[in-house]
Write a structure and sequence with these properties.
352 residues; alpha/beta; eight-stranded mixed β-sheet; 11 helices; 8 strands; 48% helix; 11% strand; globular
């Protein structure tokens, strides 16, 4: 036992020394911050894997007959989103996809059950102009919407700003989806009923757990840590679902909001992570995209959660979320900041 402890201590010391040497040009506070995020993110990932294994029997849902209902999803041409689209189609819904290249959807139309129920419009989440154009295209054809799945996302990568001046992970994972929710909310209100509300589902991640919102430097210009930026974008999705759901409930609006951790899933989202070098580990231990889609579909359809708007879901049950995400003052502050960043008045959120 003592030998194991000594070996672990030596390994940690060597790894820390190597990490410091590589990053020695950075201020010590930045090195310590990055190291903390790296360790905490590994812990969050390990916890997510354990939850996936332990909760394998709860990760299931039933698809209803949702004929004549409309679902909108960002992404959906691959990975988890593709399997969510498959499930929505099996429920007999019309599925409107926002993708960079609508022509890429042709294979899905031909290969999926009810594939002719797919509609696709161009959408680039790195551009608010593109988000607005996508929403306009959707609303022209579908004035009532029943489900919005904010699914598309990116993870890690170098520091870049979008054409709107936002850090890319913040823009793609949070701000563009926030803006899209605002633009489509009038149609969701029309599609919702008191006994069957419309739903907004934000696909988040257990990777939010080490995160917080950098209110004073939302684009992380002072010090960019790609891991911290990803965690920030994912916790923002959870906080937004909780806050928007609360303001809608206060006004008796028939729309519920949820956030979902789909699990640790083997997709190309990991292309910028260390797991990209070890695909066999992903295949052996991670969920398949099909299993990852189950909790998202659960958030779309399960009736038992109608009384639990704002819920954070993992493996078709309430997931563990960090204390920061539950702070209502922080939720309100993020909501107002997000409104300001995308150029809308907070009091006009979700209005025509």
């Amino acid at each position: 036992m003592a030998l194991l402890i000594i070996s672990a201590a030596v390994t940690i010391t060597i790894a820390t020394t190597i990490y410091w040497y590589i990053n020695r040009h950075k201020p010590i506070r930045h090195i310590l911050s990055e190291l903390r995020y790296a360790i905490d993110m590994q812990g969050a990932g390990a916890g997510g894997l354990i939850d996936d294994w332990v909760s394998v029997w709860t990760n299931r849902t039933e698809l209803p007959d949702a004929s004549n209902k409309i679902a909108v999803i960002t992404g959906g041409a691959r990975g988890i989103g593709k399997e969510v689209v498959r499930g929505l189609l099996k429920a007999n819904m019309t599925v409107v996809m926002g993708v960079r290249n609508p022509n890429s959807v042709e294979k899905l139309v031909q290969s999926m059950e009810n594939g002719n129920n797919i509609r696709a419009f161009p959408l680039d989440l790195m551009s608010l102009i593109s988000v607005k154009k996508f929403a306009e295209n959707v609303l022209k054809e579908f004035p009532e919407i029943n489900i919005l799945v904010n699914n598309a996302g990116i993870m890690f990568g170098d520091y870049k700003l979008t054409e709107d001046g936002f850090e890319t992970q913040l823009a793609v994972n949070h701000l563009s989806h926030f803006y899209l929710t605002h633009l489509l909310l009038p149609a969701l209100k029309k599609g919702g009923r008191i006994d069957e509300p419309a739903r907004v589902v934000n696909v988040s991640s257990c990777a939010h757990f080490p995160g917080k919102i950098y209110f004073d430097d939302i684009n992380m210009k002072e010090h960019y840590d790609t891991t911290a930026a990803y965690a920030q974008s994912k916790i923002a999705q959870i906080m937004t679902a909780r806050y928007v759901n609360r303001i809608l409930e206060d006004k008796d609006v028939p729309v519920k909001c949820y956030s979902v951790h789909p699990g640790i899933v083997d997709t190309d989202l990991f292309q910028h992570s260390n797991f990209s070098k070890f695909p066999w580990i992903r295949r052996a231990f991670f969920k398949t995209p099909e299993k990852g889609a189950v909790s998202v579909l659960y958030a779309c359809f399960d009736k038992d959660i109608l009384a639990k708007g704002g819920l954070y879901i993992s493996n078709c049950k309430e997931g563990f979320s960090n204390r920061f995400s539950k702070n209502e003052k922080y939720q309100e502050k993020l909501f107002k900041l997000s409104c300001d960043l995308v150029g809308i008045q907070a009091e006009n959120f979700g209005k025509n």
